[in-house]
Amino acid sequence: MRVGIGYDIHAFDPTRVLVLGGVKIEGAWGLKGHSDADVLLHAITDALLGAAALGDLGDHFPDTEEEWKDAPSAVLLAEVRTKIRAQGWVPGNVDATVVAERPRLAPHREAMRRRIAELLGLEEGAVSVKATTHEGLGTLGRAEGIAALAVVSLVRTDGAEGETAR
Predict the structure, then answer these.
(1) CA atoms of 161 and 71, how far apart (whole Å)
(2) Is there a contact between 7 and 152 (Cβ–Cβ < 8 Å)?
(3) pLDDT per residue as tens digits for the range 87-127
(4) Crossing angle of helices 39-51/73-86, nearest 10°?
(5) Nearest CA to 41 among 146, 140, 163, 164?
(6) CATH superfamily of the 2-156 domain
(7) 6 in Cβ contact with 44 (< 8 Å)
(8) Do the beta carbons of residue 143 and residue 91 sit within 8 Å?
């Protein structure tokens, strides 16, 4: 088994739609970024890459490449899942925390858990999404953006297609 940690942060962009954990959250400001700026999927993707010792998000999807401009982060995550699979690993579980003063995330957490589980081939019970505020402190406390932290485990697979850790 291996464990990886991921972190990401993006500033708000009122001209974009907010996507967190692969779920569109209507009525909230989106985030600035080269892709769709899904800070939660970015943290999870970086954690997967770290656990597999395959670098980070910027190594695989540089913001200098037009191919990734406005790309759904779910596509980036799927590509990384394929890469770690090729190395003989599958995700075991995800524990993630979103740090944001706004919007209120409790109504969207279960949808995020379902989507992340679907993207990683996990049971929902293997995915945890939590939310917290920054208690009014610093950039996040002033509601200038959203950050996310993720811890994932990877487990060895025998390489059989379609196998998932459950």
Answers:
(1) 26
(2) no
(3) 999 999 999 999 999 999 999 999 999 999 999 999 999 99
(4) 10
(5) 146
(6) 2-C-methyl-D-erythritol 2,4-cyclodiphosphate synthase (3.30.1330.50)
(7) yes
(8) no
